[in-house]
Predict the 3D structure of the following.
Amino acid sequence: MEEQIQISMPRIGDNAPAFKAVTTQGEINFPQDYRGEWVILFSHPADFTPVCTSEFMTFASMEEKFNQANCKLVGLSVDGLYSHIAWLRTIKEKIEYKGMKEIEVKFPLIEDITMEVSKKYGMIQPGESSTKAVRAVFFIDPKGIIRTIIYYPLSLGRNFEELYRVLIALQTADAFSIATPADWQPGDDVIVPPAGSCGTAKDRMEGKEDMKCYDWFFCTKPIEKEKVFSTILKK
Ligand code: BEZ
């Protein structure tokens, strides 16, 4: 009979499940070690595989940009520490891809041979694979709350500009008490106020502040890109 894997699926708004783990940068106590900072916890299926290699090179080359937005990166796969170390060394010493070369992965990569962490985070999805983690992405805020979860299958490499957009949109929503519309990019109009805290229709239609109302339930206002980034990014 096929072995049943006990998997929990954390949800948006939950406390990030706690764990201690060994990583390529030493031991971590998660999410405790990241209090006061955003953290993106992400999994990949396996070391020494092509899609994962392209992803690690891309994410590592953008790490400084995420750090500037007060966000740390933490990776995970069900491989062991020595495999992680050998793979990251190969990436640095041998792989040149899309203009990226000598890429050093400085963020921690968790070893999870027991699958303890990946099962806690719903990263093992047996319909896709029961021996490899899917490409999961958890955005965790400075209080340790899960704010966004995105899953991709094994065959699909992630869009890291989109992950950066999500991070900036979450921080902008928090900082300005607004919501962000479809395809929002910093500098685009934002939605005000967020759903569930509406002012009166009259206030909105009278053109309060700098608002543009498409109807009583749908108003936007501008926030300049410079204001978004000067509020969010580290000085
Ligand atoms: C890859 O990263 O290339 C990969 C890993 C597992 C399954 C399929 C592709």
The first strand starts at residue 19 and ends at 23.
